[in-house]
Amino acid sequence: MVRRQYRQIVIRYVNVPSEIDDNEVALDQIYESLGLGDDRDEVGKLVFRAIVKSTISGQGISSRDIMELGTVSQAAVIYHLNLFQRAGLVVKEGRSYFLRADNLSNTLDDMESDIRRRFERLKKIAKKIDEAYSP
What is the DSSP string of 44-61? Predict the structure, then answer.
């Protein structure tokens, strides 16, 4: 049986100031812009920040380590980790989670490439449909 990998990438327009001096606020803005959660989702933001910081420092992070960063249940952490994996943001290696690239900027570049490839495919299909229905 071939397992299909499902990815959902959502981009939300979030009013972001042009200059953000607080890195935590900037991470929250990226989190919300990627459609991973909203400004009330403290658990999701905690998980996102932990993965970004651990990846940039060259280490992964386990769900248990994330749990210990706050009063968060393992189920809530795992829920968010699975959500991030489905979005193509995070990969799991052994018991550790990482951004899919070595830093946040490269991860966003990879995700942008995914979106571009998907749109190119959709446009080819749309062109065939247009040609089939044109007089």
Answer: HHHHHHHHHHHHHTT--B
User: Using alpha carbons only, what angle is made at residue 68 by residues 65 and 73, rounded to the nearest 5 degrees?
Assistant: 100
| Residue 38 in tokens | 């909203």
Please give the CATH architecture assigned to the domain spanning 23-133: Orthogonal Bundle (1.10)
> Pick from 46, 45, 31: which is nearest to 89 by CA?
31
**pLDDT tens sequence across 5-41:** 556 777 777 776 667 788 888 899 999 999 898 889 9
- Which residues is 23 bridged to in the sheet? none
Calpha distance 90→98 (Å, rounded): 6
Q: Under a CB-based contact definition with an 8 Å cutoff, are residues 100 and 88 in contact?
A: yes
Rama region for 35: left / alpha / beta (φ>0; ψ in -120 to 50; rest):
left
Spell out the alpha helix ranges (H) of the chain: 23-33, 42-56, 63-67, 74-86, 104-133
Q: Tens digit of pLDDT for each residue in 71-125?
A: 899 999 999 999 999 888 999 999 999 999 999 999 999 999 988 999 999 999 9
